[in-house]
Amino acid sequence: MVGKPALLALDWGSTSLRAFLMDGAGAVLAERASEDGASRITGGAEAFEQALRRVAGEWLQPDLPVWACGMVGSQHGWREAPYAECPVALQELSRGAVRADGSEGLRVRIVPGVCWRSGQDGADVMRGEEIQVAGLLATQLSLAARCRIVLPGTHSKWVEVRDGRILSFRTFMTGELFAVLKQHSVLGRLMASSTTFHAEAFDEGLTRARMAAGRGLSGDLFSTRARVLLGQLQAEHSADYLSGLLVGHELAAALPATDADEPLALIGDPALCARYAHALQAFGRPAAAVAGNTAPQGLWALACA
Amino acid sequence: MVGKPALLALDWGSTSLRAFLMDGAGAVLAERASEDGASRITGGAEAFEQALRRVAGEWLQPDLPVWACGMVGSQHGWREAPYAECPVALQELSRGAVRADGSEGLRVRIVPGVCWRSGQDGADVMRGEEIQVAGLLATQLSLAARCRIVLPGTHSKWVEVRDGRILSFRTFMTGELFAVLKQHSVLGRLMASSTTFHAEAFDEGLTRARMAAGRGLSGDLFSTRARVLLGQLQAEHSADYLSGLLVGHELAAALPATDADEPLALIGDPALCARYAHALQAFGRPAAAVAGNTAPQGLWALACA
């Protein structure tokens, strides 16, 4: 039995736009994607509306609510949705949504990102990940009381959840560091273009980071090159070694801020989550849950709130 | 009184070639430079000889010894001078020099770099910095017994010296991280092209790194962006804030491996050394000595050994 469309949920990040047609029970009826990410759109509100119409087409109906999250709500997005401040209940994100109006009665709710400020040096922001968190909590209710949700990626987020609220979070630039070091640094020069994942090299980097995080990340990175020059590491494995180093330093810095019995959950790309799940296991803190893209469920929860 | 030429010393790195004509007392009589760095030369030994003849010209005389250090001795240099292994007495570098012969009786001694291997995870290499160390120790004898020499730069080196020997060393990719993050990451997008150094922003980054190094570098970098978005940092100061973060994390990781009363010395570009001297002061470990390029003195000491 196929439900009737009740919500159009838009996961609208910097580099892509994903649209999910959902029914009244929160099930995804159909999904479409385009490369019209918010950072690629120039021309203001009209250009955003056109990008939405291109991907959604006949899905757009006068009475169908449209909710969007991600960079579409940034300063340079369709319309800015100012950050909600930690601690924040996920229902509050619903109330913080701003309205972007288009032609022919089109109305889009854009939900806010979340910022964290605490004391002298607390300073962090996210846009989109908070909706992934809302989606996971909506489907795995036991986690809402207390958990740490890890969203690995370009800018990995570690989100502290207590009683259905986001208390704090931290961003680790793991994915972007890997990309810029591979493409633009001396470390990348030795990296052969290998498409096979060398688990052993990844583990070597992971172990090195786990055993001596006090040495600091910038004091560990160069070992990627030195070990190749000294014959301890094969050049074609060095990218996976570097990945292990970076993920390992992220875990070594992030895990001590969690409680030893705090459940950990992963949300994101399956291959990347598998890598993190393996790393968490190696650090003695296996993940309690792993999920793919939970943005549609998050927007659905907010639209119902 | 001007001495007679007794040595032609070549500081031949990846991107530049610097030639120093020196007398028998170790004084520099004249200096020339070119952009014929070792990584820019293709065509093998002959091309290296031509680059040397272009910069040295009439300085080259049948009886004048020529000594070179740096990437000219790497696998892709004029001729490979295999790494000497820690612990290494600086006089041993002299014995490890290899000979590159050119036309018309030209002979060049190329000194080895140094590698450090220790236990499971010790792995580091340098080429050129060990000669800077030799040069400093030749001119500041009191440091030879015990000191830590810091060579800030693209790949900062922290070199542990005991009884005139290099015991160990560590590389921090601070300078290259700054460059790739500024030019290629999301952090650089907010950085205005400002030529003025904002000491206060640098200090903010430094303090953040000093107070909470346990958070890890990759967990601190994103604050450069978040603080701008949250109005805590001006975009045009964010490059200097990032510089402070990176230098601070280097110091926070490197200083605990030193003894509290171990003298620290800086060698390198004066502006960069001034920044590091300021940072060391903030960490309560002021530098005991600061020097510019000491490569010619180092090569002179080795040629005499």
UniProtKB/TrEMBL annotation, chains A, B:
- Write one Gene Ontology MF term: 2-dehydro-3-deoxygalactonokinase activity
Q: What is this protein called?
A: 2-dehydro-3-deoxygalactonokinase
Record-level GO BP terms: D-galactonate catabolic process
- Alphabetically ordered keywords of this record: Kinase, Transferase
Listed CDD domains = ASKHA_NBD_KDGal-kinase
Recorded hits in InterPro entries, A to Z, give: DGOK, DGOK_C, DGOK_N
Q: Which domain of life is it from?
A: Bacteria
